[in-house]
Amino acid sequence: MADAGNGVSGSDSSRNASDAAQRSAETAAAQQAAADKAAADAVTAAAVDPVQAAPVDLSISPATISQLSAMPVDTVPNLSSLQTLGGIPTAATYADVAQATATTPTTTEYNAWSPSFSITPNDPAAVAKAALSDVSINVGLNYVGDLNASIEARMGIAPAQVTFAGAVSYANGITSYSLSGVAGPFGGVADTNYGLTANVAKQLDFGKLEASLNLNANPDGFANGRVATGVTAPLSDTWNGYARVGVGFDRNGVTSVDGTIGTDYSAGGASLGVSGSGRVDTRTGDVSGGAKFNLGIKF
Length: 299
Description:
This protein is of the alpha+beta class and about 300 residues long. The chain contains four helices and twelve strands; from the N terminus they run αααβαβββββββββββ.
C-alpha cells in the first residue's frame, strides 16, 4: 500500500511540473504577442499621425529695412562697384524711388497716314447727269506734317480702268517745293501716260518767284514737256502785277513759246483782273493771243 501510494504521488508531481512549464510558455507567448502588437501599433501610429513642422521666421528686422532704405544708388552701372545697384538718378535711394509718383509715358505718333475717299465729279447733281465714262471712284492715303504727301488710285467705271497719282510737298515759310506724278489709265482702250510735275516758289524782297517743270511720257518713251517761270510783285496795297513765260518742247526740240502779263486788284469785297497772253508755235510760225477781264463783287 505504501509503494502504491508513493507511485501516485510521483506521477502527480511530474504532471504539475509539466503544467507549470506549459503555463509559463503560454504566458511568455502572450507577452511576446502583446509586445509585437504594441510595436506594430506604434509603427502604424507613426505613419498616420502628421508631423508638426517647426515654424520659420520670414520677417525682416527693422535694422535690415533701414539699411536697405538708406543704401546709396549708383547712377552708372560699374562692375568695380558691386555694393550698389545701378539705374536710378543721382542722390536717390531705393526708398525715394519707392515713394515717387509714377508718371504716364507720353505717346509720340509717327507716320500718321489717313485714308481718303471721293467720287468725281463730287457734286451730286453733276454725278446724276454724268455719263459712266466721266465718273471715277478715288481712294487714297494722305499724310500731313512737315512733309505733306498723298497717294491716290482713281478707278473709272466705263471702261474699267485705274490711274495712279501721288504728290509730295514741303514749305519752310519763304520757299515751297512740290513734286507730283501720274500714271495711267491702265485698262480700257486709252493710251497710258506717265506725267511728272515739279514746282518751286520762293518769296523775295520784291515779290514771289515761281518755276515749274512738266514732263510726259508714253509706252514709246518721252512725249513732251513744258518749263515755265514767273514773278508776282505788289504794286500797291490793293494792286498786284505778274508776268509769266513758258516754253514747250518734245523729243525734237522747242514746240512753242507763250507769255502772260497782267494785274489784279482786290479791296473789300471787290476784285478786278486784267491780263493779256500770247503764244507762238515755233514749228508753224502761227501766233495766237488774247485778253481777259475779270470782275468780282461780294455782298
